[in-house]
Design goal:
Blueprint: H1 4-29, E1 32-40, E2 48-57, E3 63-69, E4 73-84, E5 87-92, E6 97-99, E7 103-106, E8 112-119, E9 128-135, E10 139-148, H2 156-160, E11 166-168
Parallel strand pairs: 1-10
Antiparallel strand pairs: 1-2, 1-11, 2-7, 2-8, 3-6, 3-9, 4-5, 4-8, 9-10
C-alpha cells in the first residue's frame, strides 16, 4: 500500500515533469542559429558599444529578434544606423527585427546592430561579451560575442581566418 506522503511526492514529481517537457520541446523545435557573434572593443571611459551577429532562420515561419541583454551594460537595444543628407544617426528598432523564414540577417557595423548602453566596463579586445538574445518564437538564446579591435569592421573570426562563434536553438 502507498502512503499519503509517497502519493503526494509522486504527484509533485509528475506535475514538475509535465511542466518542464513543453519548454524542452519548444527549444528543440526552434530553427534559429546565431553565428559570427562579435563586438568592437571600446576605449576607456566610453559608455556605449556595438555588437554584431548573423541570425539564420532555417524554419518555415518568420521570427523576430525582439530584445537583448548583457550583464556588461545597463541596457542593450537593437538599433539601425542611417545616413540622411550626409548625417549619420542611429534609430532604436522598437518593434525588433524580423528574421524571415529560410533567410539570414546580418547585424553589422553601419547597419542594424546591438547597442550596449551604460557599459559598466570597457569592452576589451579578445575578451568575451555575454549576451542573451530574445526572439518572438525561438525564445532566449545565450551567445558570446568575441571582442575585435577598436573600430574594426570585421569579426575577429574573419580577421584571423576562423569561422567565429556559433550557437543554435
Amino acid at each position: 500500500m502507498i502512503s499519503i506522503r509517497t502519493c503526494i511526492g509522486l504527484c509533485a514529481i509528475s506535475a514538475l515533469v509535465t511542466s518542464v517537457v513543453p519548454a524542452v520541446q519548444a527549444a528543440e523545435s526552434s530553427t534559429v542559429t546565431v553565428r559570427e557573434a562579435w563586438a568592437r572593443a571600446t576605449p576607456p571611459g566610453i559608455r556605449v558599444g556595438g555588437g554584431y551577429v548573423t541570425v539564420v532562420n532555417s524554419g518555415t515561419q518568420p521570427d523576430r529578434l525582439i530584445g537583448a541583454s548583457s550583464p556588461l551594460s545597463d541596457k542593450t537595444e537593437i538599433h539601425a544606423s542611417e545616413t540622411t543628407g550626409g548625417m549619420a544617426r542611429m534609430r532604436w528598432l522598437e518593434k525588433g527585427l524580423e528574421i524571415p523564414a529560410g533567410k539570414e540577417v546580418v547585424l553589422a557595423p553601419g547597419g542594424v546592430h546591438l547597442m550596449f548602453m551604460g557599459l559598466k566596463q570597457p569592452i576589451v579586445k579578445d575578451e568575451v561579451v555575454p549576451v542573451t538574445l530574445r526572439f518572438e518564437r525561438a525564445g532566449e538564446i545565450a551567445v558570446e560575442l568575441r571582442a575585435g579591435p577598436i573600430g574594426s569592421l570585421k569579426s575577429p573570426g574573419a580577421i584571423s581566418g576562423g569561422a567565429g562563434a556559433t550557437h543554435s536553438h
